[in-house]
Design brief:
The complex is a heterodimer of chains A (about 350) and B (about 525). Chain A has 13 helices and 10 strands. Chain A is an alpha/beta fold and about 350 residues long. The termini of chain A are far apart. The chains are: A alpha/beta (about 350), B mainly alpha (about 525).
Chain lengths: ~350, ~525
């Protein structure tokens, strides 16, 4: 009976392989549930391991899915830390009681509005929602505010991401919190018309479309523009940081921010090592790495930003605490769904 | 004395079915907790559009798969032409490409600077802009391209297995080719077509990869977003229970219609004298089959090769890559092996001791297929965390989820193989003094070998491509090829996503070869 023998042999092989992989994992290593792209995290982690000898395993997936997993696992979780690209997720996790507060003597170097009020999570790097504009386009000089994107003059000329994008949602939460529901709803309706009901699946594609003149204006995270300029430095694009104070408009809202951050799992059994990792990530050295790798804003005020981006002290940031990005998310989602953005 | 034996097979299949029903129980328990006004809210806001989106998509995909699958199967089974074996392979190979890879490749091909997008702009830039894939038509295209091989496979083998004498007799009595097709061939292959289209429909209902890449709101995607974006398990479960209801209604209807049209082929010689194709026919056949496979296989594979080449040139592939490939193989082999073992009692029980209970078991074992992958995974996860925490986080947890998801595939193939076996052989073995285990080992299993192999291969391929359950339940640090594709594709790291996709295709080829050789031998 060759078939049954084949089955038997594969079964044995499989079981031995199973045993190997199941016990191969290094139990001393820190486990991070990482919702960020490996390429931005790995180099920093490598540095940390070289410096301290503490090994780290990155378990990467979507931020929200990992938070869901963390919640379902509860005390059984193997995760020591949770890394997310969105302050909304971090705050939702904090409200679910999944995290353990980071001691003030570590978290203290990060400004208060870029971490949870109880230090259950802290921001590691920040990004702003800015506009990319084609320099050859007509009639785009009036665009100074995010709300100008709803202007009928931009019909068919605006590029936006899908409304399920976390950065888009977080940005919308900021506008909702700063300017209220009526104005935000009108804005969503306007950009729905101006984007022709069509949405890009990636920020990078918006920048490319604006550079090629297929769209005139795009709403993106700031670093995508620099990433594009790396590859094609002569692209006819300029950056507009929206809602900045000027002589006509002294109480401008400021640009919307979002942070990527980290939290320590409440059920971690390696809290000391986990705190060490957090400490490294917000040390000037760790912060410099973040600033360099992805040209994000370091959250630590005394760490230098990458040379090409606008220094923090020259721009006005919308005065919305990062923790409200989580608390208002469902309200934002309802609004976006009601308007029916793609 | 049938009772003791019935108890062994019956209780074994009962145990498997209980395991398979875990996700369904999870869904029911959670949806019961949803307050009534929230149900009403779902009904008012979400359900109409979800019903419409899902049914529209299923209908479009079924039509697409029917056209592609039946036409190619008929041409390859009924005409002798140059390159027939190659054609056969080209029609089956799309099975090796996961739907999310299809979706991803097509979005990048149709981009303004992708191959197809470029071509479109060159040809039609004055007429219209590049068609958008983020809608029912786009998703249906992807799912039809990846789903039609199922229709092809079953229809092709039904055509080969049908008795040539009937068509010959019709011809002798003066029927035209068209009449023969509609009055003889079509009724004979109808059950196969129906069964394969049912399978395609179930795939559509539970597809997560393509709909989430293309953000087309079906039940599955909506359930996933409800779970992950809003952490609302109860609404997710409510939507799942509606989806299950839909799928079960559909299955019952399908079985009902199929049971009324059953054809038995006699055991006479089935050697087909296939008509050789004329030169003109050869050209027509190859243009049609070539067109299908250009979009279903050649373009995607070319894309994978180009980007994999880029990856090798830029040395973007680390040693981890081979680890991912090994992990994928390990989990797919485990899942397929355990799945065919677990499916056996259900098939045996239903074919040898048919009853209401066996029928119920058979239906219940298919729940893993009608529930979306993320829901199956969450159900298994919740069950393990509360009942068997020691297993959670191990490979065993992932294996359980995959076995639940793909059990129906194994049960179906085995049941089909078993129902062709006449029980008299087994009875003869018993009369000659063999015990029931010995009969199973020496008579039944060897005789249903083809069905077992087909079941193993089908589960292996699907497990190799599996994404949503693997994402949630893989042990820490255990990344498979689909997981890496998912992660890298969302970061646009094509250099890593493409070789991983290519690796899946390559790993599938030996399995497909075994299956093809297997069907060839049996005919």
């Amino acid at each position: 009976m060759p078939s049954s023998r084949i089955i038997l042999i594969t079964a044995l092989l499989v079981i031995s392989a199973f045993a190997q992989t199941a016990f191969a994992r290094d139990n001393a290593a820190l486990v991070i549930y990482s919702g960020r792209s490996d390429k931005f995290v790995k180099p920093v982690i490598k540095h940390f391991t070289e410096k301290t000898g503490i090994k780290v395993i990155l378990h990467t997936a979507k931020s929200t899915a990992l938070l869901n997993k963390l919640r379902a696992e509860g005390a059984r979780t193997e995760a020591d830390l949770y890394l997310s690209n969105d302050a909304g997720n971090l705050q939702i996790g904090a409200d679910m009681g999944l995290f353990k507060a980071i001691p003030e003597n570590i978290a203290g170097v990060i400004p208060k509005n870029l971490r949870a009020p109880d230090n259950s999570w802290i921001g590691l790097s920040a990004r702003s929602r800015v506009l990319v504009i084609n320099t050859n386009s007509d009639n785009t000089h009036f665009i100074k505010s995010i709300f100008d994107l709803a202007d009928p003059r931009l019909k068919g000329r605006l590029g936006i991401t899908h409304s399920s994008n976390e950065s888009f949602i977080a940005g919308t939460t900021v506008y909702l919190e700063s300017k209220g529901e009526a104005k935000t709803r009108a804005w969503l309706n306007g950009i729905k018309i101006n984007s022709d009901g069509e949405a890009f699946n990636k920020h990078s594609k918006i920048v490319a479309a604006v550079a090629k003149g297929r769209k005139d204006v795009g709403l993106v995270n700031h670093y995508y523009i620099y990433r594009h300029l790396d590859k094609s430095p002569n692209s006819p694009i300029r950056i507009v940081i929206p809602d900045q104070a000027s002589s006509q408009n002294s109480d401008a809202m400021g640009v919307a921010w979002n942070v990527a951050g980290i939290a320590i799992s409440k059920y971690s059994k390696k809290v000391a090592q986990a705190e060490k990792l957090v400490e490294f990530l917000i040390s000037t050295e760790g912060q410099k790495l973040f600033a360099k790798l992805n040209r994000e804003y370091p959250t630590r005020e005394d760490a230098a930003t990458a040379a090409e981006i606008a220094p923090l002290n020259t721009i006005k940031v919308a005065d919305v605490p990062m923790s409200s990005l989580g608390r208002l998310r469902n309200k934002t989602l309802d609004l976006i769904e009601a308007v029916g953005l793609p | 004395m049938p009772w003791p034996r019935l108890n062994v097979q019956g209780s074994l299949s009962g145990m498997v079915v209980l395991l398979a029903a875990i996700p369904l129980l999870f869904v029911m328990l959670n949806s019961l907790q949803l307050p009534f006004d929230k149900w009403l809210g779902l009904w008012d806001t979400r359900l109409p559009s979800l019903f419409w989106n899902t049914l529209l998509l299923a209908a479009l995909v079924v039509i697409g798969c029917f056209i592609l699958g039946v036409s190619s199967a008929w041409l390859i089974a009924r005409r002798q032409f140059r390159g027939r074996t190659l054609a056969l392979w080209l029609m089956i190979l799309p099975l090796a490409i996961p739907t999310y890879v299809f979706a991803y490749i097509y979005t990048s091909l149709m981009d303004a600077d992708g191959w197809l997008g470029n071509l479109w702009l060159m040809l039609f830039s004055n007429v219209s802009s590049i068609p958008d894939l983020y809608n029912a038509g786009g998703v249906a295209l992807i799912l039809a391209l990846s789903g039609f091989p199922y229709v092809f496979l079953l229809t092709h083998s039904a055509l080969l297995n049908s008795n040539p004498h009937m068509e010959e007799a019709a011809r002798i009595h003066g029927a035209s080719s068209r009449e023969i097709f509609w009055r003889i061939t079509a009724p004979l292959i109808r059950p196969a077509i129906a069964a394969s289209l049912a399978m395609v429909t179930l795939h559509v209902l539970s597809d997560f990869g393509a709909v989430s890449m293309l953000r087309y709101q079906t039940f599955t995607l909506s359930i996933y977003l409800q779970m992950n974006g809003r952490f609302d398990y109860q609404s997710a479960a409510a939507l799942s229970s509606i989806l299950v209801m839909m799928a079960l209604t559909f299955l019952v209807l399908e079985r009902f219609f199929r049971s009324r049209q059953r054809y038995f082929s006699s055991s006479q010689a089935k050697t087909w004298h296939v008509k050789p194709a004329s030169t003109k026919e050869l050209c027509l056949i190859w243009s049609w089959l070539g067109l299908i496979s250009l979009f279903a296989f050649i373009l995607p594979i070319a894309w994978m090769l180009v980007w994999s080449f880029e990856a090798i040139m830029t040395q973007a592939l680390g040693s981890e890559f081979w680890g991912y490939a090994l992990n994928s193989l390990i989990i797919a082999i485990i899942a397929a092996t355990i799945c065919i073992i677990a499916a056996l009692p259900i098939g045996l029980f239903h074919t040898r001791f048919r009853s209401m209970l066996s029928n119920l078991f058979l239906q219940m074992s298919s729940t893993g297929f009608v529930l979306p992958g993320p829901v199956v995974a969450l159900g298994v996860m919740t069950f393990l965390l509360t009942m068997l925490p020691a297993l959670y986080g191990t490979l065993a947890a992932l294996t359980i989820a995959l076995v639940i998801r793909f059990l129906p595939l194994a049960v179906q193939s085995q049941e089909a193989a078993l129902s062709q076996l006449t029980p008299s052989i087994e009875q003869a073995s018993r009369v000659h003094g063999a015990g029931s285990l010995e009969t199973l080992w020496r008579i039944t299993l060897p005789m249903m070998r083809n069905g077992m192999v087909a079941a193993w291969v089908l589960v292996f391929i699907d497990a190799l491509k599996e994404l949503p359950a693997t994402l949630l339940l893989r042990p820490i640090g255990f990344d498979t090829l689909p997981v890496r594709i998912w992660i890298e594709a969302s970061e646009e790291m094509l250099e890593v996503a493409a070789p991983a996709a290519l690796m899946i295709v390559i790993s599938t080829i030996p399995a497909l070869w075994i299956m093809l050789r297997n069907t060839r031998q049996s005919t």
